Amino acid sequence: MTLRSDYPWHIALGEHPPAGLPSDLASVRMGMALGLPAIDSLVGDGTDVGPVRYCLAHRQLLVPVAAETVHRWRDAHSDCVPAARVRGCGAGGYRGCTGLWVTRPGPGRTAVTPADALHDALSLTRARLRTAPGTHYPRPQEARCA
User: Fold this and answer.
1) Where does the chain show beta strands of DSSP type E?
2) How many CB atoms lie within 10 A of CB 118?
3) In terms of Cα–Cα distance, which of 99, 86, 95, 89 is closest to 56?
4) d(CA 62, CA 12)
5) Can you give the pLDDT of all 146 residues of the chain as single tens digits?
6) How far is CA 5 from CA 32, 50, 85, in A?
7) Model pTM?
């Protein structure tokens, strides 16, 4: 598995969130295929990105955001859950959630990623993935569910 990024990150091997993460927060969950390029584009644009939790067992990312994001997050590409579920990706199944935290280097790290910026980056990344050469999107009309 590749946890590729064009930017430096600190990796914390452990289940506990990084120090300084507020208790009143929410977490946006997404697949790595969508989330990794979206997070990299935020860093590339100069957006302050908070810590990110990788679930290696289920190939999902959890990105802490402001608590009020739970009530307004409505997207097919990801979901937003309250802080109590920030320790696991919620994928279920027989394998437990096995993860690690990564943070951006530097003294003035931000505690959470701005939800609006994350939403925009996910939407743009999803659009690029759906229209990339060799993909099968949009699906033909007969293959869509009713």
Assistant:
1) 10-12, 25-31, 52-55, 60-66, 79-82, 99-103
2) 26
3) 99
4) 15
5) 456 788 888 887 766 777 778 878 899 999 998 999 999 999 999 999 999 998 888 888 999 999 899 888 887 778 888 875 555 666 655 556 777 888 888 776 778 999 999 999 999 998 888 776 655 544 444 444 44
6) 12, 15, 26
7) 0.79
